[in-house]
Amino acid sequence: MTQPARQKSSATSLPSLSVRIDLDAEGRIGPGKIQLLEKIHTCGSISAAGRAMDMSYKRAWDLVDEINRICRRAAVERQTGGKNGGGAILTPFGLSLITRYRKIERSAESAARKELLALRADMGVRRKA
Fold first, then answer.
1. Element containing residue 64 per DSSP (H, E)
2. Mean pLDDT of the chain
3. φ, ψ of residue 27 in degrees (nearest 5)
4. What are the phi and psi torsion angles at 76 (to 5°)?
């Protein structure tokens, strides 16, 4: 279903492409928000996802709120507590948002691969041994 988060390129790897999708004049979805959604999906809570990404619960919640607002649909739903407290789950829309974003990202990387290789050659970057 979901792909693992992309790793930042190192000095000896292929230059990489980062995809940001502008959804409206003030709202965008990019690799950080998608990674947060993926972490919420695997961790089962906003706070655990935030901790896994070295961010505060407030920052993680603000990003989730922003995603829900700019998409005009809930990508994440909070679950009310119980014995172990609450949690969070991705909605079907949230799951499809990740899948669609990762597909767009793969398509863009594939389309740009030849130019990224040329850029790498122009920069004189050697392949990893």
1. helix 57-71
2. 86
3. -125, 135
4. -130, 140
CA distance 122 to 128: 17
**Number of Cβ within a 10 Å radius of residue 94:** 24
pLDDT at 2 over 60: no
Segment 35-78, tens digit of pLDDT: 999 999 999 999 999 999 999 999 999 999 999 999 999 999 98
46 CB burial (10 A radius; 0-12, 13-18, 19+): buried
Structure confidence at residue 127 as a pLDDT band (50, 70, 90):
low
Question: Distance of CA 109 to CAs 68, 85, 120, Å?
Answer: 27, 40, 14
Q: Give, in order, the Cα–Cα distances in Å from 24 to each of 28, 37, 80, 128.
A: 7, 20, 31, 40
Is residue 32 classed as helix, strand or coil in its secondary structure? Answer: helix
